[in-house]
Amino acid sequence: MMTILTQREWFLIIIGSLTYVVLFVVTVQNSRRKILLLRERLNKVHAMQEEQQAKSVSSIELNNQKIAELESLLKKLGDENSLLRLELEEKKATLDYNNKVALIENEKRQHAETIIFSSDIYRQLQSCINSGRSLTHEEWRTLTEVVNSVYTGFTEKLYSLYSMTDQEYHVSLLIKVHIQPKDIALLTAHSKESVASTRSRLYQKVFGKKGSSKDWDDFVQTL
Questions:
Q1: Cα 215 to Cα 221: distance, rounded to the nearest angstrom
Q2: Would you give the end-to-end CA distance of the chain in angstroms?
Q3: Looking at the structure, do residues 117 and 205 belong to the same domain, yes or no?
């Protein structure tokens, strides 16, 4: 015998179906948004890695080879073909400029540890570790300034990848100056387990896949 649905039952079925459709659409949209955000983050990471590669010794040497080739072409051109001469001179000037910037950055990085380890704020870090206290707001600000003076744009690069909490940023900042995890826990007033979780979570947030706390440490050291 066929069951006849009441008006109320039909109403509930329609509401349930609409709710399911809405939830499905929202889920799909959220998934697409997460994929787009992840793709954007990975593109930024790739751009940062390319920027570092452009400042490497091998890249500088390659640029020098290109500059030598351009200089040879310019000599062969003589006075004719002024438009081509201008284009070649522009390329040479760009390569010269890129090399100068790369050399300055490399020199800063080569002396980075010396600069940081001899700074007042690093001595304060060691004093805090020895006395068992966390850093003050002013000490965090000073450490940030010193790190960014040596590693240009360090803070900006981190926040461009992920909107970090203060704790996440502070952990990353201490990683950059080679503070051990047990001391990071002390300086941030968190447990060692919390610090380890923060590091692995940051890697997963930025790269969209699981990674160890060391994976995040290694990435921070490249910035």
A1: 10
A2: 73
A3: yes
My answer on whether 69 and 151 are in the same domain is no
Closest CA to 40 of 216, 153, 165, 162: 162
Helices (H), 78-153: 82-110, 112-117, 120-131, 137-150
Query: Which residue has 């001391």 as its token pair?
Result: 183
Task: For residue 20, tell me if it sits in a domain.
Answer: no
Q: Say which residue the tokens 């968190």 belong to.
A: 190
- Does 31 reside within a domain? no
Q: Is the pTM of this model over 0.70?
A: no
Measured between alpha carbons, how far is 186 from 94 in angstroms, rounded to an integer?
A: 47
Contact 161, 206 (CB under 8 A): yes
Verify that 155 and 87 share a domain, yes or no: no
Q: What is the pLDDT of residues 158-189, one digit of tens each?
A: 999 988 999 999 999 999 999 999 999 999 99
